[in-house]
Amino acid sequence: MEYNKELEIELRNRLKNILKDLPYICSDFFLSISQTTSVKTRLGYAYDLRLFFDFLCENLKEFNDKNIIDIEASDLEKVTYRDIDIFLDYVSYHERENNTKLGKKTSISYINNENGKARKLSAVRRMFSYLYKVGEIKSNPAELVDTPKIHQKNIIYLDKEEVAMLLETVETGTKLTKNQQAYHNYTKVRDFAIICLLLGTGIRVSECVGINIDHIDFYTQGIKILRKGGNESIVYFGEEVYQALNNYLDEREKIKAIEGHEDALFLSMQRKRISTRTVQNLVKKYAKIVAPLKNISPHKLRSTYGTALYEKTEDIYLVADALGHADINTTKKHYAKMSEQRRKQAAFVTKLREDK
After folding, report:
1. What is the rounded distance in angstroms from the CA atom of residue 278 to the CA atom of residue 2?
2. What is the pTM (predicted TM-score) of this model?
3. 160-347 CATH pick, 3.20.20.370, 1.10.443.10, 2.60.40.1930, 1.10.287.3510
4. Residue pair 306/202 in contact by the 8 Å Cβ criterion
5. Rounded Cα gap, residues 297 and 47, in angstroms
6. Would you list the domain boundaries of the chain?
7. What's the pLDDT at 149?
8. Is CATH 1.10.150.130 correct for 2-144?
9. Average pLDDT of the chain, as a whole number
10. Between the chain's N and C termini, which has fewer beta carbons within 10 Å?
């Protein structure tokens, strides 16, 4: 799929630029994981390792006279497990200077919860593990660092009434601000099709924006998408999604997309392929009216689909397949509480003696 190829090229170029700021030893590490990880994963590792090396140079006296690119494997022998623990505490909340386009310096605050810290520790661990395995360092202090405890959150999703209200809000523009309503007249058919598609198939926002017009087969009511990990898949949609997509395509035919974006299904106001950020913003805009306390994002619409499917079928394997989870344990982890609630309900349904 052309869009996904272009996106991968862009991510690869960003990764190359970041690697220029990292020690030379990192090049071999990233090469070693290139066959087993996606470029998006490696890019995330690169950002996290750049932050780690920044921390070493700014906070450890052994590295104070070092530039990041000059750090060698032997220097990392000086890093202890306690230093890595302090790094994790540091990333919980830290501020960094940033240069604006006008050349002014601003300070940006960053906050990381348990998930964010666990991801950063994963990058550091994997790098140290590689260096230890190939004999570049004599010990691996990252092995001694405990993973931050991640608290399992409840699934946030919309109930049936909220779904109905959300779709009505997209159709009518009720309670939008005057400024939002002005744009709503131009985007409501597109927005309705996008939200129907997310709610009706459970696809990821990245999968949604990558759809081309010729990826849709209205006869079989299927859409070809590129799943996380690079595997192609067909997802199927029902009558409501069918109608929403059909209505949007009638409107889409009248729009002349700019060069290079002619095949894209969903277009932005600039007649380019819509971005993930735009989809995230439009979902939040409408959902905030319907469920202001739930902080609904495209991923929460995915959870809404998964929850509805599990409630109807009680088939965790079907839900995993529909959501494109590579590991069934990912699905079980998210929907385990629903199973527990059902078991509790069964206890109250069963009676040992009938009422007299």
Report:
1. 20
2. 0.81
3. 1.10.443.10
4. yes
5. 24
6. 2-144, 160-347
7. 85
8. yes
9. 89
10. C
